[in-house]
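User: quick one, fold this
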Amino acid sequence: MRNNSNVAGTSAMAQGVEIAKTSGYYPNPIVCSSENNCRIPHQHISNETDEPFMFLGKVVNDGHPRHSDYDDALRKFRRTQACLISSERMAQTPNLLKIDWANLRGRHDLEVCLFRIFRSLGNLEAIRAWLEFHAFEVRGPTRVVGENYRPRNECEPLYSFGGSWDSDEAMRHRPSLLWRLTGLTLIHGTSVNIGLSESGELVDVRVS
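Assistant:
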């Protein structure tokens, strides 16, 4: 029975290496060495000061109605590095593929960290490759409003992009206590939905 979270994480990373090597997306920005260590280039390292977390295109500041939901996650993950495994947190050039799934306790942690990582990657193909590396079934982008719709502001999400795991894949990356003890899970899967503005800027990340 697969009941060890470290084993599960190692297996998921190895799977990501194989996916990256055979990706159908070109050019694939992920580069894997012969030692099965993969890296993905990033434009910069995002943080709360320079690129504050957004919900549906609006900054989640003290006056935002959802601020209390995200307050703890925003304090824990002010920098992208805080979302990564310990060996990457102080690295001069952190490897953004090495997200610390085990340290992300709930949906709000996940949403804040994925927002940080995706903003750091800086372009759609890099985000697609990151999702594929972590075994998400990628979809989109698709426009979610009519062609004649005029956005109310420049950060309103008009396009949807993202990926999903089935229940087995979700447990391989983020095993629950029930799954570790019994091999069973009540989770049907995990979906990541990314909102993009008219200009293609990432303005929303939601996990369900």
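User: anything notable?
Assistant: Residues 5-207 form one domain.
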